[in-house]
Design a protein that fits this description.
3 domains; 13 helices; eight-stranded mixed sheet; 26% strand; five-stranded antiparallel sheet; alpha+beta; elongated; 31% helix
Length: 540
């Protein structure tokens, strides 16, 4: 093992006079009332700095001393000093302020290595409210060697009585200046070498560091794109600005180009968050479970027999919160809803399709208003237990409905529907589940929670009925152009597709598939001019 204990083989060895203050340490080794084994330095000032020959830090560890292999300081010295003066009771990081002045306007506050502090002189000038130890001492330390050859010893490098001469002064590291030899040639710049005492290993080069930072940036972009899409643009802009800074350094072009990047990026960010945002990335929420128990017979008050079925639905929202809904439905009430459903459709005579569905949806919501009370109470109880906001409560309702498997509901037989072409024909060719011969191709809210078979408008109508009973503004949208129906939620979501209804923004949400948050619908459905409002409810 080498007898030298320096961390960096390419270093300058220095000594100087230290003035500073520190919180006392907590280790058991004490001298008098002061602990010298573990100071928590707040501020270190080093004056009368001289470059010396190599020293062995182990040989300097005699008597009262304090040793640190690597001592890093806070970078923004001026700002931190201003804040300490104004807010002295604030809790600051453990890194001390390292201040080595040179003249009136220059100082060094970088990293010190193999620091040995000895010959302590402790000041008694302390107020009762100040627990800091104020002291002066002798300090030995190392800093990274510059690319120039320096006078090896006995040169005072900090005090300066005249302005520096450009041809004679060189900058070392973060600002500590030394005088070059007048005759000797300069040494070759190279990467710092880390000496562990046994092995010498080259430190990472700037190019390797750049490649590593680039890989980290790309990885962050990928993770954001996968899980947090709204963070993609900010991460991209931050990374681009960092690369520009490394490339242009302090040139004026950097400032101008950075302003251009952030102005353009800001407009893009506003565009992405606006109503015209076309990219929809459904967020995966974990799959739940649905259990339907066999029907149980029970006697009604009039002596007739009814069959009840218990449903248990477990689902999760986008914050991975778990919800359960366990409720019973009655065959008798289901058949009554079916009959009233058929009567409503049969009695509707309007030829306007939007008006037709407005009337049908409205009457179905009214006829099943009290039949879905038990399910609504479960939703309200879940929200109260978790103290959910109205937005989280609405998302609990939408994710509940999204958890139920999709069934196409149509008013014709499967054979007749498959001849109509388009989506319905393709759906039947793939042998996907459907519910045929249903008047108007929609189920009422109670019919849906009984058989758990529904498509777009059936789902939107149930969500509307639940949210309205809970006092949350909502609406049902229908589009002839898209042949589709979605739900609107009148809460301050802030992003996504919306329509303003009587002064309230209703944000659209797709209910036929999992992963769509409120404000998100399929990209091809975002033209709000193609959507008509059939039902709506505004709380205020």
């Amino acid at each position: 093992m080498s007898s030298k204990t320096n961390i960096l083989s390419n270093t300058i060895y220095c000594k100087g006079k230290l003035l500073g203050y520190s919180e006392p340490g907590r280790k058991s080794l004490t001298i008098g009332k002061i602990n010298f084994s573990e100071f928590s330095w707040k501020y270190i000032r080093i004056d009368d700095v001289k470059v010396i020959d190599q020293y062995n830090s182990e040989e300097l560890k005699v008597g009262d001393f304090w040793y640190k292999k690597v001592l890093k300081g806070r970078k923004n010295w001026f700002l931190s000093r201003q804040l300490i003066w104004k807010f002295p009771k604030l809790s600051w990081p453990k890194r001390p302020e390292i201040f080595i002045p040179r003249g009136d306007s220059e100082f060094f506050n970088g990293t010190l290595y193999e620091v040995v502090i000895s010959d302590f002189k402790i000041s008694d000038k302390r107020s009762p409210a100040d627990s800091s130890v104020h002291l002066s001492a002798e300090i030995y330390f190392q800093i990274k060697k510059p690319s120039i050859k320096v006078i090896p010893e006995n040169i005072i490098i900090v005090p300066e009585t005249s302005a520096p001469v450009i041809n004679e002064i060189k900058t070392v590291g973060d600002g500590l200046n030394v005088l070059p030899e007048e005759i000797s040639s300069t040494t070759t710049a190279s990467d710092p070498v880390i000496d562990s005492g046994q092995n010498t290993v080259a430190a990472p080069s700037k190019s390797r560091s750049t490649i590593m930072n680039l890989l980290i940036w790309i990885a962050a972009l990928f993770i954001a794109w996968k899980f947090f899409p709204l963070l993609v643009l900010p991460i991209f802009l931050i990374g681009l600005s960092t690369m520009l800074f490394r490339f242009f350094k302090k040139s004026c072009l950097l400032i101008l180009f950075s302003l251009f990047v952030f102005i353009v990026g800001g407009f893009l960010l506003l565009y992405f968050l606006s109503n015209n945002y076309k990219t929809v990335i459904p967020q995966d929420n974990r799959k739940g479970t649905i259990k339907i128990s066999p029907p149980k017979a029970q006697k009604n008050k009039d002596g007739t027999t009814d069959f009840t079925t218990e449903k248990e639905i477990h689902w999760r929202d986008f914050y991975n919160a778990d919800y359960w809904a366990r409720y019973n439905t009655s065959n008798t009430i289901f058949y009554e809803s079916q009959q009233r459903h058929q009567n409503i459709v049969s009695n509707e005579t309007t030829n306007n399709s939007i008006q037709f569905f407005t009337e049908v949806y409205g009457q179905m919501n009214k006829m099943d208003n009290y039949h879905i009370d038990s399910l609504t109470e479960i939703i309200i109880t879940n929200a109260a237990k978790l103290n959910l906001s109205p937005i989280r409560t609405a998302e609990m309702v939408t994710t509940f409905i999204q958890e139920i498997p999709y069934y196409l509901v149509h008013d014709l037989s499967c054979q007749e529907s498959s001849k109509q072409g388009g989506f319905t024909a393709q759906y039947h060719r793939e042998n996907k589940p459907c519910l045929s011969d249903i008047p108007a191709g929609v189920q009422s809210p109670y019919e849906f929670i009984h058989n758990l078979k529904g498509d777009c408008d059936t789902r939107s109508l149930l969500a509307y009925s639940i949210l309205k009973k809970m006092g949350i503004s909502c609406s049902v949208w229908v589009s002839e152009a898209y042949g589709h129906s979605i739900l609107g939620v009148g809460l301050p979501i802030g992003t996504g597709t919306y329509k303003q209804i009587n002064g309230v923004k209703h944000y659209a949400v797709e209910l036929t598939a999992k992963g769509f948050k409120i404000g998100m619908i399929a990209p091809e459905h975002t033209n709000t001019d193609n959507w008509d409002i059939t039902l709506f409810y505004n709380k205020y």
